[in-house]
Input
Amino acid sequence: QVQLVESGGGLVQAGGSLRLSCAASGRTFNTYNMGWFRQAPGKEREFVAAITWSSGWTYYADSVKDRVTISRDMAKNTITLQMNSLKPEDTAVYYCAARQGGNMRYGADYWGQGTQVTVSS
Output
């Protein structure tokens, strides 16, 4: 019973920045990992970043490490993904995700509708 709604996608030039937001339903996600996956056309959906809701611990895919920061606003039930130094290979549909326990690297239980990120050049 989790609803996730992404926003903030768009077109950006290589080297640019973009900030994605996710609004999550529910009153508490204390046992959840919250985060982001992405999927390029014809490719498998891949893990990007996650944060444990209760503690704020973060972890990232190697492909985006040092370029991406995930955070959460516990009062507003929002998750943000700040992406810097974007590369064309970052082009994908980005999905907000929630997982009930366990490491989000291995998948998620709930998904948003996705928001398109396109990096040109």
Observations:
- The mean pLDDT is 96.
- The longest strand covers residues 92-100.
